[in-house]
From TrEMBL, chain A:
<dbReference type="GO" id="GO:0003723">
    <property type="term" value="F:RNA binding"/>
</dbReference>
<dbReference type="InterPro" id="IPR027408">
    <property type="entry name" value="PNPase/RNase_PH_dom_sf"/>
</dbReference>
<dbReference type="GO" id="GO:0034475">
    <property type="term" value="P:U4 snRNA 3'-end processing"/>
</dbReference>
<dbReference type="GO" id="GO:0071038">
    <property type="term" value="P:TRAMP-dependent tRNA surveillance pathway"/>
</dbReference>
<dbReference type="GO" id="GO:0071051">
    <property type="term" value="P:poly(A)-dependent snoRNA 3'-end processing"/>
</dbReference>
<dbReference type="Pfam" id="PF01138">
    <property type="entry name" value="RNase_PH"/>
</dbReference>
<dbReference type="GO" id="GO:0000177">
    <property type="term" value="C:cytoplasmic exosome (RNase complex)"/>
</dbReference>
<dbReference type="GO" id="GO:0000467">
    <property type="term" value="P:exonucleolytic trimming to generate mature 3'-end of 5.8S rRNA from tricistronic rRNA transcript (SSU-rRNA, 5.8S rRNA, LSU-rRNA)"/>
</dbReference>
<dbReference type="GO" id="GO:0071028">
    <property type="term" value="P:nuclear mRNA surveillance"/>
</dbReference>
From TrEMBL, chain B:
<dbReference type="InterPro" id="IPR026699">
    <property type="entry name" value="Exosome_RNA_bind1/RRP40/RRP4"/>
</dbReference>
<dbReference type="InterPro" id="IPR036612">
    <property type="entry name" value="KH_dom_type_1_sf"/>
</dbReference>
<keyword id="KW-0963">Cytoplasm</keyword>
<dbReference type="GO" id="GO:0000176">
    <property type="term" value="C:nuclear exosome (RNase complex)"/>
</dbReference>
<dbReference type="Pfam" id="PF15985">
    <property type="entry name" value="KH_6"/>
</dbReference>
<feature type="domain" description="K Homology">
    <location>
        <begin position="171"/>
        <end position="217"/>
    </location>
</feature>
<dbReference type="GO" id="GO:0003723">
    <property type="term" value="F:RNA binding"/>
</dbReference>
<dbReference type="InterPro" id="IPR012340">
    <property type="entry name" value="NA-bd_OB-fold"/>
</dbReference>
<dbReference type="GO" id="GO:0071038">
    <property type="term" value="P:TRAMP-dependent tRNA surveillance pathway"/>
</dbReference>
Length: 237, 254
């Protein structure tokens, strides 16, 4: 179950706190801002993404890879031509990761791969609400899903609440899919990032399921946005 | 029309606009709607909604206007808007002002003041608040402000916002839609008139960039007006009368 809270940071243009059964992130969007000279692009806005880890100093190379993936998707979704020579800044702070405990890397070799994927999945969904909150122009909506394939099952990792259960799964492959949503339907793949062993049939199956989950999840996001709009104009009602 | 009824036509980026669905002709695209420029002749180009909000269609002078009503915090300059600018720097020909923290700066040339001559330059200091209007917005240049009505050359109430002797002032930051409603829709949203009816006397300047400047005769009155305006932003319309009454009781009539 995904729990979303919008406008949690009142001094920023847009912010959102997202918690799923096994991860928690807070994202903030500011923009369009005055950029530094080196960020200034003549005909479009620059997008800066900063992701901070749940503990220790960051962004470490683990987060830098996540930032790059998030930035490529945002580049496709934000109407960058509307803000030439401006900067859109997206910040994410990971608050809780299921593999925070010391020594949790032991035992399961997938942990090292799985933990950044879980964090990034949450960052994607949270940053969409933040972008909507900050009123930055977007071409379309997007929803991110993280699916794990075991020997006989397909698992939506955001819904696994028990950490021990999550560790007990023997994933053959992991798939992180970000789908563009237009007119309430998933239309386009913005990011497909897979790890592990899989074949064509697995991937087709994963994409089919991701579409169903996206459609369901988008209804949830839509309801939250509906609530946000009525809160924004509460003084008018 | 209350907003809660209207949230039925909630628009999210990626949705199809009602006008596009019904093939209506739209002459003017307002905020929140974007016409793509894949085709340079602008025929058969898609129009996208770019923000989360409520669709709104009006007809003025036989022109169909479409826009999306949404609320935000960061102001982007538009021609003709009334704004409260903060002076941050001055040069030989113009002041540099900001309308929003960390946004691009805007210029206020000395020539855009009433009775401007080469020798007669306004003496504003950094940090001063100026009530002015956005004169020109060009996508390749910083926006230009003016402190007069450029058609008549009159002051028209623009200029430095300063406390007269014995007055207390404050500045309040609000969301943009709330400021727009307070400034332009006093008939439909009579919050300020209601406050005056309760014997609160105050001077107010509302900038579309999300700042409201208040000036009253005493510190308590300033605090009272400040509290009412910030509380009403987060309360439903039918609670506003009660908020005004309670806050006046709390601050002025013990």
């Amino acid at each position: 179950m995904t729990n979303l809270k919008y406008s949690v940071l009142p001094n920023l243009d847009g912010s959102c706190e997202l918690s799923t059964s096994n991860s928690k992130v807070i994202t903030a969007v500011s923009g369009p801002l005055e950029p530094k000279q080196r960020h200034r692009l003549p005909l479009q806005s620059a997008i800066e993404v900063v992701i901070k880890p749940s503990f220790g100093m960051g962004p470490t190379p683990r987060e830098v890879l996540m930032q790059d993936k998030l930035a490529t998707v945002l580049q496709a979704v934000i109407v960058t031509e509307l803000y030439p020579r401006k900067l859109v800044q997206v910040n994410a702070q990971i608050l809780e990761s299921p593999f925070d405990e010391f020594g949790s890397m032991m035992g399961n070799s997938f942990n090292e791969i799985l933990s950044p994927m879980i964090d990034l999945n949450s960052c994607f969904n949270s940053s969409f609400i933040s972008l909507c909150d900050s009123a930055i122009a977007l071409k379309s909506s997007f929803v991110s899903t993280l699916l794990g394939v075991t020997e006989d099952k397909l698992i939506n990792i955001a819904e696994v609440s028990d950490l021990d259960l999550l560790r007990s799964f023997n994933f053959k492959s992991l798939h992180h899919i970000v789908l563009e949503v237009e007119e309430n339907k998933p239309t386009n793949v913005l990011l497909l990032d897979s790890q592990g062993d899989f074949n064509d049939d697995d991937l087709v199956n994963v994409l089919d399921n991701a579409q169903k989950i996206t459609q369901k999840e988008f209804q949830n996001i839509r309801n939250i946005l509906k609530d946000k709009v009525s809160q924004d104009f509460i003084w008018k009602a | 029309m209350s907003v809660s009824e209207n949230t039925k036509n909630l628009i999210v980026p990626g949705d199809l606009l009602t006008c596009a669905k019904e093939n209506q002709t739209i002459d003017i695209l307002g905020q929140g709607i974007y016409l793509s420029f894949e085709n340079h002749l602008y025929n058969s180009n898609k129009i996208y909604p770019t923000n989360v909000g409520i669709e709104n269609y009006t007809t003025k002078n036989n022109k169909n206007i479409a826009n999306i009503d949404y609320n935000s915090k960061r102001y982007i300059p538009q021609q003709g808007d009334y704004v409260i600018a903060t002076v941050t720097n001055n040069y030989a020909t113009h002041f540099v002002c900001t309308l929003n923290n960390f946004s691009s700066t805007v210029n206020l040339p000395y020539a855009n003041f009433p009775q401007a001559t080469k020798k007669n330059r306004p003496k504003y200091e950094n940090g001063d608040l100026v009530y002015c209007r956005v004169k020109v917005v060009d996508s390749d240049l910083p926006a230009e402000l003016e402190c007069m009505d450029s058609e008549t050359g009159n002051k028209e109430g623009f200029g430095l916002l300063e406390a007269e002797k014995g007055k207390h002032t404050a500045i309040l930051n609000c969301s943009l839609a709330y400021c727009r409603e307070l400034l332009f829709n006093d008939k439909g949203f009579p919050l300020l008139s209601d406050m005056v009816k309760k014997n609160l006397s105050f001077e107010v300047a509302i900038g579309i960039n999300g700042s409201i400047w208040i000036s009253t005769g005493s510190l308590l009155e300033t605090l009272c007006v400040y509290k009412i305006l910030s509380k009403c932003e987060k309360a439903e319309r039918n609670l506003h009368a009660q908020i005004i009454e309670d806050t006046i009781k709390e601050y002025i009539k013990e």
